[in-house]
Amino acid sequence: MLPRTLSLLLLFSAPLAQAAEPLEIGVATVEAGAPVRVQLRATGEPVWVPACRGLSWEAFDPQSNRYTPLPSAVCGPLQPAIKIDKDGTEFAIDVDPGAAQAVRAVVVYGLGCKDERPFPMADCEKVASLEGAPAMIRAAPAQK
Questions:
Q1: Are residues 109 and 130 in contact, defined by beta-carbon separation less than 8 angstroms?
Q2: What is the predicted pLDDT for the residue at 137?
Q3: pTM for the whole thing?
Q4: pLDDT over 80 (residue 91)
Q5: CA–CA–CA angle 91, 67, 74 (5° rounding)
Q6: Which residues 6+ apart lie within 8 Å of 55 measured at CB?
Q7: CA of 68: how far to CAs of 27, 62, 76, in Å?
């Protein structure tokens, strides 16, 4: 069976909420079996993201009419939180949407955190999450 090409139909999105969010999520086009490139960029002051599972994926389940988390890799030892500033940081993560047609990135972030500490020990002033815009996955026809 030849690999199918998947495309996420979202190149860069502004935050969904009406109030200004401290973080923007951008998703690049992907191919089946290749990691998805996700760009996170702070809109003001820096934000911190957990080194493991700070960025995850949810798939839309039409039967329950809601998004549910997709499985992710097991975390290793604690590592310092990743500081995101206005220049942004790119992540490459694996996502297997299975039969899902709509997915979205979800980011857990902290504000006012201390540098060089694992996220749970960074004494963040505020911890929140942000859901990215939905992205549709379309499989290209199989090559013959």
A1: yes
A2: 67
A3: 0.76
A4: yes
A5: 45
A6: 38, 40, 49, 91, 93, 105, 106, 107
A7: 19, 11, 23
